[in-house]
Amino acid sequence: MSTNRTFTMIKPDAVANGHIGAIINDITAAGFKIIALKYTKLTEETAGKFYEVHKGRPFYTDLVTFMSSGPIVAAILEKDNAIEDFRKLIGATNPADAAEGTIRNKYANSIEANAVHGSDSDENAAIEGDFFFTAAERF
Length: 139
Ligand code: CMP
Fold this sequence. Notes:
globular; 7 helices; alpha+beta; binds adenosine-3',5'-cyclic-monophosphate; 4 strands; single chain; 40% helix
């Protein structure tokens, strides 16, 4: 069953390049409601845990180093058909393949430093949201 919620992170590259405001504007202009929002920084340990599903893949170690290299913005978002619509809004994982006008097309540098994360399923959106937010931090 769809929860109409997804989870996102604005990654260290997009934060460092000054794109927090523009990305949040794109997200809300596309009709997503912000349920929870946090400016924080992952450690190597918490980044490793967040991306545990990719452990063993060739990009895992670099990804963990990159994701703990600077602050990030985490958010839970709500909209009808949230998972699919958000993935359309951000574009393909590799910004070189991301459609014109998508967030990764506009703000990402590489397949690793790809500006934003978006959950790939309702189940993972719930797990990822719980990773960052308590019930009292959701509105
Ligand atoms: P994200 O959507 O956060 O999920 C996994 C992340 O791994 C992905 O975005 C990229 O930042 C990173 N990554 C680096 N290399 C690859 C790759 N070859 N394939 C998929 N993801 C990659």
